[in-house]
């Protein structure tokens, strides 16, 4: 059971400083036990011996980029909803009551205890089961904690991407079939959400890529190696540095482990951590590819919509040209009819009343010919469709 403890009185700095607000943290040790802490940043600094500038990275009131930093005694992790400090023996996690952090705490409780702890007290059964149990390896504490955090982050972003895809593709298809203000506004909101999600996924991918490109940064994450003061490979204990949890980052064949362990011996060897990070890099890269595909689909849909709108616009222009031409011809016909229809006494109008209808007929024919000529010229110039 998790319990709340007050701030450590020894962590109070004797020099007067501005009072710092207490924040909620959850502490998980190597046995999976949890303790909820309400402490300020000075108590955290005192507990894990971390510098203030590194702790500021986890401050939600300040804007700091996503990062995974390896310091002398801790790993500072600030990715997505995970803000944690990992040491070689314990994990400090910010905001344990957050709905996205609670599953992480539960998974840490399940995965942090050593693998051998699950087999204590069990009787020897012999046979293949015993061999398989003996083949299970235990990775360092900080690697198990880091793996849980990366798994949670990648799974969280993958789930958000799946939700976005399930909403975006039907909306785009509906927009294609019927262009309306409602559908356009719906797609606009989905595109904005996709842009924000892509930026979040890109940040995580860039951070993992930056780690993979720098062996020194990865070497800084070997907290247990630093404490031991030697290479993790020593005799039969070489395989213990491989992840053993059932996630994608830990599914490493025993044959690969044996072959790699024979070439170990350098303190700067980071191949085991590199394999772990590459697995989650591939997963987050796959999520980014899905978002890229969705963006391309949205762009293609926008191009199709623009083509349809251009077509409708051209049809309206043709209609406007048709009406304008008809208006000109009718205006000419009305002008002639108006001139000859005025009640003005003219000598040539005497006993020639029958001429009025012929004037209208001839004028109507001439106006019709003029309209046909205008439309033929517009079609010849490509202003209207055939």
Q: What's the quick description here?
A:
The chain is of the alpha+beta class. It has helices spanning 41-48, 52-55, 102-111, 127-135, 141-177, 181-213, 215-219, 223-228, 254-261, 271-341, 355-380; strands at 4-5, 23-29, 34-39, 67-70, 75-79, 82-86, 90-94. It is found in: Membrane.
Q: What does the model show?
A:
With 386 residues, the chain is of the alpha+beta class. 56% of the residues lie in helices and 9% in strands. The chain is built from eleven helices and seven strands. It has a seven-stranded mixed sheet with strand order 1-3-2-7-6-5-4, sandwiched between helices. The radius of gyration is 38 Å and the shape is rod-shaped. It starts with a strand and ends in a 6-residue tail after the last helix. Residues 1-19, 117-137 and 230-265 have low confidence and may be disordered.
- State the oligomer: single chain
Alpha-beta content class = alpha+beta
Task: Give me the number of helical elements.
Answer: 11
Radius of gyration: 38 Å
Mean of all residue-level pLDDT scores: 75
- End-to-end CA span: 80 Å
Helix content: 55-70%
Biggest beta sheet attributes: 7 strands, mixed
The helix-strand sequence is EEEHHEEEEHHHHHHHHH
Strand content: 5-15%
Low-confidence stretches: 1-19, 117-137, 230-265
What is the strand arrangement across the widest sheet? 1-3-2-7-6-5-4
Shape: rod-shaped
Q: What's the number of extended β-strand segments?
A: 7
Function: Magnesium transporter that may mediate the influx of magnesium.
GO molecular function: magnesium ion transmembrane transporter activity
Main location: membrane
Transmembrane segments: 321-346, 358-378
């Amino acid at each position: 059971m998790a319990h709340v403890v007050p701030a450590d009185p020894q962590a109070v700095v004797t020099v007067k400083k501005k009072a710092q607000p207490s924040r909620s943290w959850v502490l998980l040790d190597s046995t999976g036990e949890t303790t909820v802490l309400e402490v300020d940043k000075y108590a955290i600094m005192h507990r894990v011996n971390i510098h203030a500038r590194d702790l500021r990275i986890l401050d939600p009131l300040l804007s700091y980029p996503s990062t995974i930093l390896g310091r002398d005694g801790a790993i500072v992790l600030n990715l997505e909803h995970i803000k944690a400090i990992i040491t070689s023996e314990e994990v400090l996690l910010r905001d344990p009551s957050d709905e996205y952090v609670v599953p992480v705490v539960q998974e840490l409780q399940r995965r942090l205890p050593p693998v051998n702890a699950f087999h204590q007290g069990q009787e020897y059964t012999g046979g293949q089961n015993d061999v398989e149990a003996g083949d299970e390896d235990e990775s360092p504490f900080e690697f198990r904690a880091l793996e849980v955090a990366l798994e949670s982050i990648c799974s969280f972003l993958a789930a958000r991407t799946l939700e976005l895809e399930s909403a975006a593709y039907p909306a785009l298809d509906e927009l294609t079939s019927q262009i309306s203000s409602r559908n356009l506004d719906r797609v606009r909101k989905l595109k904005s959400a996709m842009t924000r999600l892509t930026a979040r996924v890109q940040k995580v991918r860039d951070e993992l890529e930056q780690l993979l490109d720098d062996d020194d940064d990865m070497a800084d994450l070997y907290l247990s190696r630093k404490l031991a003061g030697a290479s993790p490979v020593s005799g039969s204990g070489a395989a213990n540095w491989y992840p053993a949890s059932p996630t994608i980052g830990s599914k490493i064949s025993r044959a690969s482990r044996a072959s790699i362990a024979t070439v170990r011996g350098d303190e700067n060897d980071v191949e085991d951590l590199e394999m772990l990070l590459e697995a989650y890099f591939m997963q987050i890269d796959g999520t980014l590819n899905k978002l890229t595909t969705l963006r391309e689909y949205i762009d293609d849909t926008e191009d199709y919509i623009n083509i349809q709108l251009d077509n409708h616009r051209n049809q309206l222009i043709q209609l406007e040209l048709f009406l304008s031409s008809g208006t000109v011809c009718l205006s000419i016909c009305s002008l002639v009819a108006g001139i000859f229809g005025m009640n003005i006494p003219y000598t040539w109008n005497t006993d020639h009343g029958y001429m009025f209808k012929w004037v209208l007929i001839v004028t109507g024919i001439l106006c019709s010919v003029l309209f046909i000529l205008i439309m033929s010229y517009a079609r010849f110039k490509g202003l209207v469709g055939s």
